[in-house]
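User: I'm curious whether this sequence folds into something compact or stays loose and floppy. Could you predict its structure so I can see for myself?
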Amino acid sequence: MSRQDVLALLREQEGAFVSGEEISRRLGLSRAAIWKAVDALRREGYTVEARTGRGYRLLDAPDVLTEPEIRRFLGETARVGRTLVCLEEVDSTNLRARQLAAEGAADGTVVVADRQTAGRGRLGRSFQSPGGQGIYLTALLRPVLPPERLAPVTAMAGVAVCRAVERLCGVSPGLKWPNDPVLDGKKLCGILTELSLEGETARVQELVLGIGINVSQRPEDFTPEVREIATSLAQALGRPVSRPALA
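Assistant: Here's the prediction. I'll summarize afterward.
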């Protein structure tokens, strides 16, 4: 974990240089270990400047859905996101969350993926989930409520997505009832909620709430049939949007 320790220390300094001596003293690392950590961070997409006599400073971070990048925006959370499972690729974040639920994962566990190979929407439709362009996440919830009380969850998630986009981007998506946030009349996000019940008692075992948001796609990144009905934040705004911040 030394690269993450070095990253956290550089981030503390908010772009100022940190000497190799100070990094070594505070983290208990050798100069060689520090250099290896910096090299690893660079290979992950971080821009780290090294200057003789001054040390190291962090200039830029990659647009990646890793735990360190998401957590620096998330801050303290009472439940959702206390446990983050960040994956480069998965068949479906909903499927992975259900697997984790069967293994005893805690209420509020969130699965985030850079790419899905079998993303799904409502009614068995596929959901295009290319790497590096969207946010694909699922929250595993264990509500102590009867199933009929959970009907509004999908719409509530849609409102939450709209609020998050407005807070970060300054634009207000609409909500095509019940589960499609839209921008400029085109679909921006898909939401898929799945509920598991105990057979004998009909007690709720878990609810998985999947959210897929188009962030960086260009028109040509969508298939022709999807291009007519879908958009991304980058298309609508004409500028990039941070995926870890929105996640």
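Summary: The chain has two domains: 2-60, 67-246. The two ends are 23 Å apart (CA to CA).
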